[in-house]
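Anyone? Bumping this.
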Amino acid sequence: MKILDGKIVKAQILAKLKEEVQNLERMPGLVVIQVGNDSASEIYVGQKEKMANQLGYKFKHIKLSGDISQAELEKIIKEINSDQSIDGLLVQMPLPKHIDSKKIQNLIDCDKDVDGLSDVNAGKLTHNVDTLMPCTPKGIMDILDYYSISVEGKNVVIVGRSDLVGKPLASMMLNNNATVTICHSKTKNLELFTKMADILVVAVGKKGIITGNMISDGTIVIDVGINRVDGKLYGDVDFESVKDKVSFITPVPGGVGQMTVAELGQNVLKAYKKRKI
Amino acid sequence: MKILDGKIVKAQILAKLKEEVQNLERMPGLVVIQVGNDSASEIYVGQKEKMANQLGYKFKHIKLSGDISQAELEKIIKEINSDQSIDGLLVQMPLPKHIDSKKIQNLIDCDKDVDGLSDVNAGKLTHNVDTLMPCTPKGIMDILDYYSISVEGKNVVIVGRSDLVGKPLASMMLNNNATVTICHSKTKNLELFTKMADILVVAVGKKGIITGNMISDGTIVIDVGINRVDGKLYGDVDFESVKDKVSFITPVPGGVGQMTVAELGQNVLKAYKKRKI
């Protein structure tokens, strides 16, 4: 069993980015909009700010009251869309219930959509057109790439079909010539599929739902789950029971979760370059 | 073995549409742009015109010289985008090589994109937002629906990953709670997957690549292939060798191929209603 170490891949990506950014004509600009006072959001925005500072990006955190109206929020997004010094715009999710989140995500200029969650960027990814892609699945592809694990012709089984991870990852895997199966809460006989996987990706947010008896020897396991129980982090995969069967596995913490902010950094630079063309 | 008869489903859809169209304030309008003199395109455009006339749609066939420039073609599309009497615009594929087809498809107003091939409509489908969807996969869903075959929880295996059929069908199946596997030319041990399918959809365009030994008893088979050999039509599935094993099958001809033009008719009406809102 070999650990796929997200920290190492993250460090390499950030180091490369930092070097590249030093040679740019101007600082790439990232704006993060936060609505309300969600404590988890505070932490996530903080991590993004730290990354931006580390890379030498211009960073702006716009913190808005939780009772802002849809129209006011839209006005702010439109202003940032037309601000030439800003390359990436991200609206921290979740938004308050009175805000139409889908509309907000699709209002962001698709060339500044560094979360890759707009319809048009999802469609480009589906159509295998290079675009800004969601950070977490892109992080998975980069981990596999770092460890020289090719997905071509592999049987990739993805458990979870979120817009954030499962669906975009399925497109990325397909674009890289994997055979892809998407399983979810309505799947019958889940273990039938997980046992057939060459690469098993689990992204459902339920602690330890994949156990050793559900996988075959030599499986590569990517655990996207981050489940906090009594202050400790657990993945969706029961590490102890699978560890003697897997060939490679991403740990929790220290695996996929490490990648998200580094991928955001990559997307900001990609957006910068796209806008320069 | 029961035949899933595309002709019956098509007739029902067209009859419903015709009735609904009679009660509209104005005629829904469909424009088909054809570039060059491809003989297959002539036939396809003719089928669309026939459908439009049958339903009482306003139909316009714009036939352009094969040496039209990208800029001229774009200008015509923009004019139709802003023509308030037109609800659906379709550019017959394939386009001559000097034309950027992807750019053309994405230039069509997404609310008039009755082929459902634009990035934004593909992304909406991925995100399970109701939108204009590609006709052939939508036709498959409607055939299954007509015969009361639910896909929820079923193991759906799709062979072929085109933007036109395989990928949008995977999204439709997933949105309807099927477990979905996408196989293609790089898939190893294809029969391993086809044998596990509750519903097997084959859309690769190779005569008879699926044979009886590759499927399990009771499989529902949807054959999207239309392969013309010596003037006769064949599917991607070897009908003779599978017919005693399948529970249901779409024949070729008379199956999925029947649906495409009827689904275009549905999309034009859907676009009409969307634009009215």
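Late reply, but here is one note on the structure posted above: Chain B has a mean pLDDT of 97.
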